[in-house]
Amino acid sequence: MNKLMSLALLLALVLGCRTISTLTGNDNLKKVGELWSDVPRMDGLVSIEADMPMFVKIVMRTALNNLYRLNSNNEDKTPATGDWAVFSTTKTTDDVKSFYTNERMTTFGNWEANKNSTCLDGKQQGFSGVMCVFGKNVNNKFIGLLIIATPDEKKKDTNIFFVRVEKDEPSGGNKQPRTSNTPRAAIKPLSGSAPYGIEKRAMPIGTDLDALLPKEVGPYTRALLERSDQRGVTPASIEVDGNSVYATYNSGSKEVFVEFALGSTAHNAQSTLDNAANETAAGTFPTDPRVGSIGTEPSYFKSNDGSAAFYAWTRGNYYFSASAKGGEGDLDAFMQSFPY
Fold this sequence. Notes:
Blueprint: H1 3-11, E1 29-31, E2 46-47, H2 54-64, E3 81-89, H3 93-99, H4 102-109, E4 119-121, E5 130-138, E6 141-152, E7 157-168, E8 188-189, H5 209-212, E9 216-217, E10 220-227, E11 245-251, E12 254-262, H6 266-280, E13 292-293, E14 296-297, E15 299-304, E16 309-315, E17 318-324, H7 328-335
Parallel strand pairs: 1-3, 8-14
Antiparallel strand pairs: 2-3, 3-7, 4-5, 5-6, 6-7, 9-10, 10-11, 11-12, 12-17, 13-15, 15-16, 16-17
């Protein structure tokens, strides 16, 4: 399977994320004001100053940082680097999908052709709009492009986020594995209380996904359980230090999206937490114990930027995160009943 098809399948519908490095909020990804020479520009695009909403950060993090997942185990795990840009347009998200077609992208920028559409319905990821992915190999580099178009209900227009990343192709031979910013000192017991009192809950054990991601959590019912690398495919088990698992919980119109991963060590689980927090906290793990603690058991990070409420935490070798686009009230109702 070629890299673009691999990326499209993984992105289809957003890759899983595990032990990743920051692509938003640090030098790995820089904001630019114009599109690149190999990306066609729709008529009517206006460059704007806007931060990434949390759900866009999560999609970008899980999709683009996982370019390194296409490597074999003995290859460099360094994540991709690149640029991002954001524009506003009066056109609709369907117009964006109709413009950024395989045919146009292949002709204009020599992006790799794909017989299937690379534009996907954002509703499958919990947001309104579309996302499109393209890839190509140039001079021993794999280049990936992610386009996310989402309506701005207040301004009655559409915001389009573009991310273009590059990743060196492996040249053979073993390379040094990537390192993590997570402290390697001995993990200490938490002093005080974590949000939702998770330190008082039972420790997760085993690999039974129905036990680790229960079918019922308070008012929420698990509507979907799927592999992060093959969306729509129900996982038979969880991989240690491998691909994560996604679970979607619904309560009426409310939805909580959960990611679960299992590390071989507690430090590996906390590396995942560290990177997830960096993505949503502008590259800095918070020092306020009310919203973050790392190097402790349990460790956790909590954020609410108005576009979504997000909570990630570790219990020993186990990593969990829960994201509620409906806000903190929805997240609270879920977390108050989650067993771990």
